[in-house]
């Protein structure tokens, strides 16, 4: 019985393994579209008073701080530790992340836990009640 379960789980792993890279693929975006998305995200966070952010710049560096004000071309970010304001152009930003985990991450973690519990219950039922 244990051999059957092991074979079943290995077969499922082999069947679903090609889907991993496709799920993580990202499309290249137009720079104007990316800039518009960044601007909308910054304005939305400022309006909601969720100003504590982590900014990823095009050169790969990350900056953490609080958004203090916005303009047509960029925004001011007060450094997390020193409080010194820095002007950042929307064109220089690739990603704006808020503080803590996103809702998507929380849902995926909950789904993973639920799936693990269901698999454990099914495995227990198969091994103890199946004759």
Gyration radius (Cα, Å) is 23 Å
Which CATH top level class of the largest domain fits? Mainly Beta
Report the oligomer.
single chain
Helix and strand composition category? alpha+beta
Total count of helical runs of at least 4 residues: 4
CATH architecture of the largest domain, by name, is: Roll
Please report the total strand number as a whole number. Answer: 5
From the 3D structure, determine the CATH topology of the largest domain. SH3 type barrels
The largest beta-sheet arranges its strands as 4-3-2-1-5
Question: Into how many domains do the coordinates divide?
Answer: 2
Unreliable segments (pLDDT under 50, ≥5 consecutive)? none
General shape: elongated
The N- and C-terminal alpha carbons lie at a distance of 9 Å
Strand content: 15-25%
Q: Note the run of SSEs as H and E.
A: HHHEEEEEH
Largest sheet: 5 strands, antiparallel
Task: Chart the SSEs and their pairings.
Blueprint: H1 2-16, H2 19-24, H3 31-47, E1 52-57, E2 62-70, E3 74-79, E4 85-89, E5 93-98, H4 103-129
Antiparallel strand pairs: 1-2, 1-5, 2-3, 3-4
């Amino acid at each position: 019985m244990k051999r059957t379960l092991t074979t079943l789980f290995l077969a499922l792993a082999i069947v679903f393994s090609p889907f991993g890279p496709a799920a993580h693929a990202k499309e290249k975006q137009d720079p104007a579209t990316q800039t518009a998305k960044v601007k909308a995200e910054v304005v939305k966070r400022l309006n909601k008073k969720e100003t504590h952010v982590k900014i990823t710049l095009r050169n790969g560096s990350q900056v953490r701080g609080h958004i203090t004000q916005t303009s047509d071309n960029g925004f001011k970010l007060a450094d997390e530790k020193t409080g010194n304001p820095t002007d950042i152009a929307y064109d220089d930003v690739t990603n704006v992340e808020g503080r803590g985990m996103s809702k998507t991450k929380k849902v995926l973690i909950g789904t993973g836990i639920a799936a693990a519990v269901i698999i454990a219950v099914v495995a227990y039922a198969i091994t103890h009640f199946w004759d």
